[in-house]
Amino acid sequence: MKDAQDPSRWLLTASLLTKETSPRLSFIHNRNPVFLSPDNADAWIAPDYETTPELLEALSIESDELTQELSFHVVSKEVGKVSNNSPDLIRPI
Length: 93
Fold this sequence. Notes:
By secondary structure, the protein is of the alpha+beta class. It contains two helices and two strands. A two-stranded antiparallel sheet has the order 1-2. It starts with 17 loop residues before the first strand and ends in a 27-residue tail after the last helix.
C-alpha cells in the first residue's frame, strides 16, 4: 500500500455530467451540464458519496432551478476551435 503522502497514489480525473436540457437552455442544445449548488458540489466529490436514481433526479431538478440564475451571451465562433485558448473567447460580441 502506498503512503498516504505519496502523490503518485492519486489519479486525478475530471468528469462533466450532462442531462437532457433544461427548458431555459433548450434553444442552445438538447443537453446541458448538470449544475450543482455549492453544497451538492462538495458532497458530489466526497469519496463516500453514494448515488441513487432518486438522488440523481433531485440533482437534475436542482440543476434546472439553477439555470434560472445563469446569464449568457453570444461569443465568437473562435470558441469552437480547440486550438484557441484565450480569455477573449468569452467576451460578448
